[in-house]
Amino acid sequence: MFGKTSSKIQINLLIRLLGVIFIVIGVALAYNTSTTPLVPALVPVFYIIASSFIFVGILALISRIT
């Protein structure tokens, strides 16, 4: 019984760590998109990808495996 609880804690920590990583990737992508001269038609695509990374990261931070 103790092993299952320990593995759940480790899985929850791993998911939260991945959430933080996804948020950092999303913020870095958005920042690099805003500071790099790109073709104006491509900028919204990169912002959508960055916001998707941030959204998934936030979901990973608030999720919990039961």
Which residue ranges are poorly predicted, with pLDDT under 50 across at least 5 consecutive positions?
Answer: none
Amount of helix: over 70%
Tell me the major beta sheet.
none
**Rg, please?**
16 Å
Structure description:
With 66 residues, the chain is mostly helical. It has a domain at 15-37 and 44-66. The model has no long low-confidence stretch (mean pLDDT 88). The chain starts with a helix and ends with a helix. Helices cover 82% and strands 0% of the residues. It is rod-shaped and about 55 Å long.
List the topology elements.
Elements: H1 2-35, H2 43-62
Helix pairs in contact: 1-2
Tags for this model:
66 residues; mainly alpha; 82% helix
Quick rundown:
The protein has 66 residues and is mostly helical.
